[in-house]
Amino acid sequence: MTMRSKPKILAVIFDLDGTLLDTERATRGVLKEFLAKYGKVLDKEKEKNKTLGKTLKESSADIVKDYDLPLTPDQYIKEIIPMYQEKWMYAKPLPGANRLMKHLHDHGVPFALASNSSRECIDLKISYQEGWKERFSVILGSDQVKEGKPSSDLFEEAAKRMGVDAAHCLVVEDSLIGVKAANAAKMEVVAVPPRSEAGCSSLANTVLHSLLEFQPELWGLPPFEDWIDNALPIEPIYLSGLYLNGFLHEVTEDGESALPDQVFGVFFGCAEVEMTNRTFKVVVCIGRDQCSCNDHQKLIKIYIVDGANVRMSNQQMKLELLGYTKSMVSKETTRFDAVSTRTLEEYKSIARRTMDLPMFRQDYILEASYVEDMVVSNID
Fold first, then answer.
1. Is this prediction's pTM over 0.85?
2. 17 is catalytic
């Protein structure tokens, strides 16, 4: 089979929610709270299985119908949007988002934001992210075109405003609806989907676990130059839970991981163990539990870089991830004993060599920015 060569990319178009910004976790609980005011109970399974990426009007009409609310979709929007707005300030950039946007901006590559959210909501969401609004060449909401995704209107209009032909635009999306819109616009598309949007895989040109895996040079764009000794400095990622038999059992009130699906791969950082009052350098492998009935369950395997003989099982642990090494192959994410001793020693060696470099060191301050509401499970 002859592989089609990739066209040279001259501009990039990003989706927002779930692609660049983790608004889903920041606003978790809003719909449940809203429904309670009307005596309704959130159906977790129904919400989990809903299609991502719909316009506000479409998703609002679905909610009103599904829960038989005594409201019109417009009334629902008017009442719930202020509740979401209060939470958007807590939304965090997804792994690699800031890095990629800064890289494109520094190299003069134009990039646009094209979201099914309204322009007003987009502006408010990105207002809390330093430098975002200034970096985008174009910002478009679904209320600024005839039809939102899966129509091609948003992407075609973004390309038009940047003055770039569609064939030389690369779309970065997280939802099946967004990937379909990119296909309709005849643009190349990279999907970074959560597990629930696995359907993206068959329609996107490339599928990544996170933007940390993105390779600009594959698209004719300037390559990254920020890797240091096979390690990549990242914005710190915080998590905590019960350390047991080498795994971190990180569970929240609703049973879903506090980490987005895009936190995936081999990381390193530091761990603070409750009863030892010590901080350890660690390698952390994060994957998805392919055997679990819970689609949101993560496997978080902890390898102590030094001091492995210290007894710490069944202890509370706080983690601060400071660097990224690589993605993981499928066999590694199903059973972590597939990580060979030689490979593990390579990961540990990288952590030892780089953790104390200025670009990685964060003074090991383990203060979680979005873990405050986590409830740690008492797993035996």
1. yes
2. yes
